[in-house]
Amino acid sequence: MAQGEVILRFDDVTFEYGPKKPILNEVSFTVRRGAKITLMGQNGAGKSTIFQLICGQLEAESGATHLAPGLSVATARQVIPRNQLELTVREFFEKCFNRKIYDIDPKIDQVLKVVNLAAPKERLVKSFSGGQQARLLLASALIQDPDLLLLDEPTNNLDKSGIAHLTQFLIDYPKTCIVISHDAQFLNAFTQGVLYLDVFTRKVEQYVGNYLDLLEEIAARIEKENRKNAQLAKKIQESKDKANFFSHKGGKMRLVAKKMRDRVEQAEEEMVEVRKEDKTIRKFIIPAQEEMAGEIVSIRSFSIIKDHKAVECAAKISVRKNEHLLITGPNGIGKTTLLESLASGISKGATIAAGVRVGYYRQDFSTLNFEDTVYESLGRVSQEQSEENLRAVAAGFLITSEMMHSKIGSLSEGQKGLVAFARLVLQKPGLLILDEPTNHINFRHIPVIAAALNRYAGAMILVSHVPDFVKQVRIDETLDLEKYIS
């Protein structure tokens, strides 16, 4: 761990979104100058809230957040705000400053080079792929040259080379950085310390080392707590047995019985609460639409992006029931555009069989109405299922009764992802189109999601840049768009 001066300190910080939604309970931790820190915790635990408290966008109910005098802070958020998607690249970077920057073009060129992105300054932000937008987000924080860099899920949508580039950047980065991520391999490459936000206690635990070190320390702690409780439980039972025996003897033996009961009370007070692990979503199945046969999807041609221009490519791909197609390629080549054209039915070179219900998981969650409550969103695709079943499906994805009445827009990105999966279960699609379905999702959920996709009996088209996830999913055919570039 870096041994520089303390530049950030949380002292007993408590925060809640209203009386029914507590997030932090007397949280305390410190960050030293030059440290590379990971902030971890379950989806919806409040990690992004901590970033907003650091930046002053939110104010604690009690306690205090202390920043070193003159410390500058910049955040690379998970997603570009919708109201900035219509901006040009130059306008997007100008928004990073609260004053006019007259020599901003050279600064833009410099940070775009750092994030390895070719981006014409007049090009609209919305025209970039998800991975390219992730690089723009990182660049928007770097252009501010902050003393403290906050990165919120920076690997989402990044391809393999993008993650490698970001990893090396963070290894070499000379300033202080706090990163929120669910990518353990990425984190272990540079992390020197972990801040773990416990969703049960709503406190932050501070650990030295990387994520693997944290797992070992937590496992050892749980084993020690369980061992201590087992020893105390044995002692309690023995004392209770002796107390019951002596209480029937009368005379001085009753005094001995009282001492035994005192020992029981003392031992019960010494029992420790064993640390709880993050909750994992339940095993689930995405039911496939019934009465489907033959070819579900036919792809005869598609477009890729080469040198910022669309190039038409011929293909001969057929996806039938119970067949899974993986589409691969670098950021910006046109994977999301291909999926969107398929799902919307506007693709000139591809068709979906008539009557097939499409379940589309978009990486930006734009298939969700952010003004809907979770209950309304699930109800729209429930295929006339009972409310009891709807709520049972929601509970399996850690969607609580309280969350059911929350608007989609108020949820964390990870919680939006879980709602999107719950919708697929209720929808019973004949074709699944999944665009980076593990973005923002707690890594503990990923094996459960992979197992569900393996059991899916309909047709499936998947895009994912997460090798560990793809290895767990049954793939029957791969379409590598990069092979069409040359």
Automatic annotation (TrEMBL):
SUPFAM superfamilies linked to this entry: P-loop containing nucleoside triphosphate hydrolases
Domain ABC transporter, residue spans: 8-224
Gene3D superfamilies the UniProt entry points to: P-loop containing nucleotide triphosphate hydrolases
GO-annotated biological processes: transmembrane transport
SMART domains per record: AAA
Coiled-coil intervals, chain numbering: 215-277
GO CC annotations, alphabetized: membrane
CDD domains named among the record's database cross-references: ABC_cobalt_CbiO_domain1
Keywords recorded for this protein, A-Z: ATP-binding, Coiled coil, Nucleotide-binding, Repeat, Transport
A single MF term (Gene Ontology): ATP hydrolysis activity
Pfam family, one: ABC_tran
InterPro entries referenced in this protein's UniProt entry, alphabetically: AAA+_ATPase, ABC_transporter-like_ATP-bd, ABC_transporter-like_CS, ABC_transpr_CbiO/EcfA_su, ABCF, P-loop_NTPase
Name of this chain's protein: ABC transporter domain-containing protein
Organism from which the protein derives: Candidatus Wildermuthbacteria bacterium RIFCSPHIGHO2_02_FULL_45_25
